[in-house]
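Memo to structure team: turn this sequence into structure tokens by end of day. - J.P.
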Amino acid sequence: MVRAVIFDWDGTIVDSAEATYRCYGRIFAELGVAFDHDVYARTYSPNWYQTFRALGIAEERWPHVDARWLAHFAEESIELIDGVRDALDELSSRGIHAAVVTSGSRNRVTREIEAHGLSEVIRECVCGSDVAQKKPHPAALHLCLDRLAVAPADAVYVGDSPEDVEMARAAGVYAVAVPGGYPNREALAAARPDAVHETVLDAVRALVTP
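Reply from structure team:
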């Protein structure tokens, strides 16, 4: 029996891929670093420090780049992906916990949860700053499960990146992939998730249908 469905945020719940690209483009232009869609596809990772490292940005500059990216991102309008609200309502109607585990910053993700009116249906949210290790380390997912008082065998994680699949597998949680707008579809398939669905709503319906 599924007691909790835990979601990635960016690219799974909200359509942030192009906004992420635009913000990267702005900060890398400020730094004089060449960046286009080909570079984005080659260097993308939900752990943005891997992107910074791949583009040769010195580690001591990362806090400044983080702050500039967040400032640019705050100017973006981020929409829910189609079907997400229906999926969350479906879980709520069945008494199944919905939660989020994301690498994103708490201030930003909390702001977006509230802006989309999801505070009542998302039971728990673990963000990148809540644990020392980033995805695919399972620490954030374990923390979320502990807060929900749900065993790994009774939970499902839904995400759009290979790191999401690897994190779920390391935590002993069923891994569902929903390919999104980020340039990682081949890597996502290569991670061999337990199930793949075209949309979050399709994934939730498959999980709750007897």
